[in-house]
């Protein structure tokens, strides 16, 4: 959560937070990834058995990709789609590879060899240290097939599908915890698109059956973008079987400011979804007056799974052509802003997954010779490495962006500070401050919270880059620049930069210390003044 005061020309920007202003635990699943059978994500991305440059292991997996995914510490990976899910027959993808059928792939108009399937995915997750998350086919698939897949993955019984897994060389069940009840079932592009009424009825029945077979699983309901009647309806009908409510948003614009500020719309979507979840839990039953209860219908309060998010222009990078986006500095700022949104809204987010992890709208690209870490890789890495633990409340005083936005409603709905900020207190007692300076022309000199000792500084973008710089094979223009900062007082956030600052704190320090330094007093006074201004 941040509060914001818009300042005028000549006023001094400031950021204020302290280690004891904790607001919510940041779920470790916030830095998840996503692999879909689409374009070069699986074949040529993570699985590349014909690579001749020594870049594969004995499974045919790209070792450079595995190393990068380990560096990103993705805690969970969603698979096998995406739109691909709606026609996927999981049984095609297990057993001896030479016997697996080759199929026409309907969603992305490709050919599916099925050489990479459930057991390969589990092995790959194990190698990168991530938890598997499977999406069920609620398009052409049946409940019987879904139950069979659950049995194959999770049961240790002497029964057909559990035995099939053992026969395929995997004695122990995989214990897959997270299962998605379909993907974007509402979408006109979907095979077997469904109405909200039909979906809710089916999802409830599937959920009941799946949880009967394995009560330990967590089910992810198929929501839309978080601010739709689909979300409201399916939550109300399916709350009992829902552990997480999935929403998807892709943002983009050709112009820098609407592009980089666009993820702010996801912040509003999260707030609205959280309200819809509470609405489904707490709506009063006045029909049964005077015996109605003031208790929530269920004490259980699902969180949001933002299991597809990113920057994607489907005209520039069409899905059936592999959706290979080349990301620039503006996109890098947008990704940092996306992640700031998740940290600020940590209270409501149970999981998030960037879509996708490799080659398809991804921070990581492969060539025959090696990998390219795109501009967007770097904020993802810094967040995953440092923005963990507790989300902290922050107050920001800065100029605001007031121009056009994408979506258009954003400008009239939310404040857009030129400095977009989130903060986290790590278990290592470091305070981590993530700051996006959206301005493509101005550095912003800012008063920071009081720091003790040396501040580690990681900068991506900034003065060294132009807003359209990108990384391609053989040319890395954008990466992390590390430095230290020992001055107290003001810090200069370079134009179009993402900066992560971190310093050691004593977490028990009271919010208003009597031994305030001059800088602290100034900042505290700024906060108090701004509160006055807003109360007037
Ligand atoms: O991630 C690409 C596609 O975007 C996914 O397959 C689909 O779920 C979404 O529309």
TrEMBL record:
Protein name: non-reducing end alpha-L-arabinofuranosidase
The organism's taxonomic lineage, starting at the top: Eukaryota, Fungi, Dikarya, Ascomycota, Pezizomycotina
Alphabetical UniProt keywords: Carbohydrate metabolism, Glycosidase, Hydrolase
Free-text function comment from the UniProt entry: Alpha-L-arabinofuranosidase involved in the degradation of arabinoxylan, a major component of plant hemicellulose. Acts only on small linear 1,5-alpha-linked L-arabinofuranosyl oligosaccharides.
UniProt record similarity statement: Belongs to the glycosyl hydrolase 51 family.
InterPro entries per the UniProt record, alphabetical: Alpha-L-AF_C, ASD1_cat, GH, Glyco_hydro_b
SMART domains: Alpha-L-AF_C
Protein's pathway: Glycan metabolism; L-arabinan degradation
Source organism superkingdom: Eukaryota
Domain Alpha-L-arabinofuranosidase C-terminal as annotated: residue spans: 307-497
Keyword Manganese: no
GO terms of molecular function: alpha-L-arabinofuranosidase activity
Catalysis performed (reactions): Hydrolysis of terminal non-reducing alpha-L-arabinofuranoside residues in alpha-L-arabinosides
Entry EC number(s): 3.2.1.55
Enzyme class: hydrolase
GO biological process, one term: L-arabinose metabolic process
């Amino acid at each position: 959560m941040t509060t914001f005061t818009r300042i005028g020309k000549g006023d001094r920007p400031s950021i204020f937070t302290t280690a004891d202003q904790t607001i919510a635990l940041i779920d470790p699943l916030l830095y998840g990834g996503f692999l879909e059978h689409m374009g070069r994500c699986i074949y040529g991305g993570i699985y590349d058995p014909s690579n001749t440059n020594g870049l594969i292991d004995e499974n045919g997996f790209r070792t450079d990709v595995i190393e990068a995914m380990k560096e990103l510490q993705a805690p969970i990976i969603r698979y096998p789609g995406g739109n691909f899910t709606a026609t996927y027959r999981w049984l095609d993808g297990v057993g001896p590879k030479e016997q697996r059928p080759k199929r026409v792939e309907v969603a992305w108009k490709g050919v599916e060899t099925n050489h990479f399937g459930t057991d390969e995915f589990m092995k790959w997750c194990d190698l990168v240290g991530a938890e598997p998350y499977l999406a069920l086919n609620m398009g052409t698939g049946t409940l019987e097939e879904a139950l069979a897949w659950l049995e194959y993955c999770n049961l240790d019984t002497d029964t057909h599908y559990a035995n099939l897994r053992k026969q395929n060389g995997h004695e122990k069940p995989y214990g897959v915890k997270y299962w998605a009840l379909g993907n974007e079932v509402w979408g006109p592009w979907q095979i077997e698109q469904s109405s909200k009424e039909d979906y809710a009825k089916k999802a409830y029945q599937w959920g009941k059956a799946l949880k009967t077979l394995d009560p330990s699983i967590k089910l992810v309901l198929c929501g839309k973008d978080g601010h739709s009647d689909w979300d409201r309806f399916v939550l109300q009908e399916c709350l009992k079987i829902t552990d997480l409510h999935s929403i998807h948003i892709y943002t983009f614009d050709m112009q820098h400011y609407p592009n980089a500020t666009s993820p702010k719309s996801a912040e509003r979507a999260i707030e609205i979804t959280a309200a819809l979840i509470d609405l489904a839990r707490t709506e009063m039953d006045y029909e049964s007056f005077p015996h109605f209860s003031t208790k929530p219908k269920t004490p259980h309060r699902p969180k949001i799974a933002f299991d597809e998010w990113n920057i994607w222009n489907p005209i520039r990078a069409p899905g059936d052509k592999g959706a290979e986006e080349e990301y620039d500095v503006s996109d890098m700022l947008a990704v940092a802003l996306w992640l700031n949104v998740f940290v600020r809204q940590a209270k409501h987010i149970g999981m998030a997954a960037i879509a996708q992890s490799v080659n398809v709208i991804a921070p990581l690209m492969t060539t025959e010779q090696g990998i390219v870490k795109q501009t967007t890789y770097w904020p993802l890495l810094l967040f995953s490495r440092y923005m963990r633990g507790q989300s902290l409340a922050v107050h920001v005083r800065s100029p605001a962006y007031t121009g056009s936005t994408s979506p258009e409603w954003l400008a009239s709905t939310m404040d857009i500070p030129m400095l977009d900020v989130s903060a986290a207190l790590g278990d290592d007692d470091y305070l981590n401050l993530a700051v996006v300076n959206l301005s493509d022309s101005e550095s912003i000199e800012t008063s920071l919270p009081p720091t003790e000792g040396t501040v580690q500084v990681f900068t991506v973008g900034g003065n060294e880059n132009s807003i359209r710089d990108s990384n391609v094979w053989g040319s890395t223009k954008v990466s992390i620049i590390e430095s230290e900062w020992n001055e107290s007082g003001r810090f200069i956030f370079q134009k179009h930069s993402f900066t992560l600052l971190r310093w050691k704190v004593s977490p028990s320090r009271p919010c208003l210390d009597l031994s305030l330094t001059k800088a602290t007093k100034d900042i505290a006074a700024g906060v108090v003044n701004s509160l006055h201004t807003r109360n007037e």
